Amino acid sequence: MSQACITTTLFDLFKVGPGPSSSHTIGPMKAGHHFAQNCLELPRDVRVRAARFRVRLYGSLSATGTGHGTDAAVVAGLLGNAPEDCPPSLLQTLMDNPHTPHTRPLGDGEVTVSVSDVIHDAVIHDFPYSNTLVIELTDEAGNTLYLQEYYSVGGGFIQWKGWVAPELGEPVHRYSNMTELRAIVKEKGLNIYEIILDNEMAITGASRPAIIHSLNEIIAHMETSVRRGLDAEGALPGPLKVQRKARMLWQQATRLHASPDQFLTRLNAYAFATAEENAAGGVIVTAPTCGSAGVMPALVYALRHELFIGDRAIREAFLAAAAVGFIAKHNASIAGAEVGCQGEIGVASAMAAAFVADARGYRSRVTENAAEVALEHHLGITCDPVQGYVQIPCIERNAMGALKAYNAAVITCGTDPYSQRVSLDAAIAAMAETGREMSCKFKETSLGGLAVSMVAC
Ligand code: SF4
């Protein structure tokens, strides 16, 4: 085995929460929530002196935090909201009223925080992770009572200084990359979905019915986000005044009777729908991130409603897609701030390609090949959201990721699987290397690429 085996769980990868960014919205909200929970455990003599929360953002959290709603997300977390149950309107309310102080009971008193208390600090820094936030509890005079350094490491995952990976069960099937997963498939005669399910049960201790129930919920959340997006109209929040297009595309598709464009236009509409919901701060599923949350739901919705693929095949294919996400996260990154958009839309497209191939009955090798083709053609794509809003180029990029995923599956399902020269592991290694060499201008800082050229013209 090349390195430590994969222990990421399904519901770490697929998280329900508000958009627009897993690393800039869900992660900071979790950090705020975690910090506030820790404060409840502080000694009483500390709690009675507590008066304020203070937050400093670093790296791309500082550069693009406003557009991503980071300030509001961390405050919402400090006020006791977790991503999975935060009312979507709360973030918008906080953003619309940045100077309004909010209080949270602590000990015998209250702690105050407002969105305008969040400080955007250095973009270039020496912390071990790009997306760092430092949260403090202070007394009335501003003296620090308790401080924690958090890292939003992508996909809504957080760590903190001194963080130790939680004790989990041992996976039944140990693999760290696609080559090892493929070997298990061959040696044990299992499908990818069986391997992922076995490991999920072993790592989390959850029963098979419980996992299937949660998986059905995740898939239902994805479909709901598509339907909500198809129903919505008008401009998205923020200064770019981007108009929603999902509904228009859907209406156009209904007029394209018997045209080959109809399926593609619908696929575009589905991807736009969830990506626009994400941009509006609506509830989505990270797959693997918020910015790329439109790709997988587009294919889930299309396969279910256009190709009439059944629940069981959808579920099993979903687990094959999860395997691709796990491997990419383990061997490279799924954070735009770490490797650019290839880690977000590129990985989402690879997952979706595996999903399509598997759902259409092609197993293991074809599934891997489909994922590889989709990822290969996203290599080097930078993260350059205009003015820090997950709108341009992000929304269209979700549609492109969905179409590339479908095409990758079509290409690989129609060719000899053993003639493919590039492995998924090789494509992931190339993504990691490209990400390492990429200038930080192109890693979710909005300091380069389209973020600059569009403003200039
Ligand atoms: S450009 Fe890609 S990685 Fe960057 S915020 Fe948009 S979707 Fe995410």
UniProtKB/TrEMBL annotation:
It catalyses: L-serine = pyruvate + NH4(+). Residues 10-161 form the Serine dehydratase beta chain domain. SUPFAM superfamilies: Serine metabolism enzymes domain (SSF143548). One of its GO terms (biological process) is gluconeogenesis. The keyword Mitochondrion does not apply. The keyword Metal-binding applies. Keywords: 4Fe-4S, Gluconeogenesis, Iron, Iron-sulfur, Lyase, Metal-binding. Pfam families: SDH_alpha (PF03313), SDH_beta (PF03315). One of its GO terms (molecular function) is 4 iron, 4 sulfur cluster binding. InterPro entries: ASB_dom_sf, Fe-S_L-Ser, Fe-S_L-Ser_mono, Ser_deHydtase-like_asu, Ser_deHydtase_bsu. Residues 187-451 form the Serine dehydratase-like alpha subunit domain. Its cofactor is [4Fe-4S] cluster. It comes from the Bacteria. Pathway: Carbohydrate biosynthesis; gluconeogenesis. Its EC number is 4.3.1.17. Belongs to the iron-sulfur dependent L-serine dehydratase family. NCBIfam families: sda_mono. This is L-serine dehydratase. It comes from Candidatus Bilophila faecipullorum.
